[in-house]
Amino acid sequence: METEQDFITKQLELIKKIDLKNVLSISDVHTIAGVDLAYWKEDEEEYADCCIVVLDFPSLKVIEEKYIIRKVEVPYIPGCLAFRELPLFKEVYSILEHSVDVFFFDGNGYLHPRHMGIATHAGILINKPTIGIAKSYYKIGNVDFVMPNEGANSYTDISINGEVYGRVLRTHDKVKPIFVSVGNRIDLTTAMELTKMLITADSHIPVPTRLADLMTHRIRKEYQTARCKV
Q: How, if at all, do strands 130-134 and 102-106 pair?
């Protein structure tokens, strides 16, 4: 089995493939997808479901949902989460029936010690624009983020050693902020604008990742309920 150092070596090799330039404008975006996973234990083994929800843009109508359930083979290692999740993501991605212009991941992208969060790693593999949306801050080194003002759409940059890794965005007045970072093939300004366009009154996180999150919990519950009946 590969070690933590093996994973880090692969991440360092992939850094040179990161593309922080836009390959499309917002007017070119017609489909957007949200990606998320949910985990659970079963007979001392760890399982997960990976869900992808595809939406028409800008109507935000759901046009496709796909998922798989698999045993998780890679242990959790801080900074190497992508290696746990990518095998499941790639399998669901391979069965999508719609072409997706931009993928939103529940997790980080460039906001990572080696700029290789799940959104960036996946974006390189599929050669698509990707964005990372995290609900909590993954602290890099000893750098804390600066809390934005309390008003909707207020934000602050997360700057580490003079480089902007991502942004802290408050999407509604006085709500908990989210952490936005580019994945690949998109710049931070466009990622922010798209993110803000996907916020509704119902949720402070973008619709694609919110729906993917809800779907993961629904699929996990249905699977566990079915198992209990066997």
A: parallel
Q: Which token pair is 82?
A: 């992508």
Which strands sit side by side in the sheet containing 45-56, from one edge to the other? Answer: 62-71, 45-56, 31-42, 102-106, 130-134, 178-184, 163-170, 154-160
What b/e readout covers 70-85, taking b as 16+ CB neighbours within 10 angstroms? eebebeeeebbbbbbb
Tens digit of pLDDT for each residue in 146-182?
999 999 999 999 999 999 999 999 999 999 999 999 9
Q: How far apart are CA 13 and CA 119, in angstroms?
A: 16
Write out pLDDT tens, residues 99-121.
Answer: 999 999 999 999 999 999 999 99
Contact 163, 181 (CB under 8 A): no
Q: Is the entire prediction scored with pTM above 0.90?
A: yes
- Cβ-in-10-Å burial (0-12, 13-18, 19+) of 2 comes to exposed
Does the pLDDT of residue 139 top 80, yes or no?
yes
What residues form DSSP beta bridges with 54? Answer: 33, 64
Task: Supply the DSSP string of 45-102, one letter for each residue.
Answer: EEEEEEEEEEEETTT--EEEEEEEEEE--S---TT-THHHHHHHHHHHHTT-SS--SE
